[in-house]
Design brief:
Blueprint lengths: L48
């Protein structure tokens, strides 16, 4: 860790709430019974 302190940001917090726009309908992909194909993503190395 670097011992030097970071400078404080000069940006002020906004007034907008976080998240999507009001009234916007979200979309989520749903799992299907019979997938067209299956992709396996195998671990190549450990992150430790």
């Amino acid at each position: 860790m670097d011992s030097r302190s970071r400078t404080k940001s000069s940006r002020k917090p906004g007034n907008n709430k976080s998240g999507g726009q009001e009234g916007h309908v979200g979309y989520t992909l749903k799992p299907v019974e019979e997938p067209d194909h299956i992709e396996l993503h195998e671990v190549e190395r450990c992150g430790r």
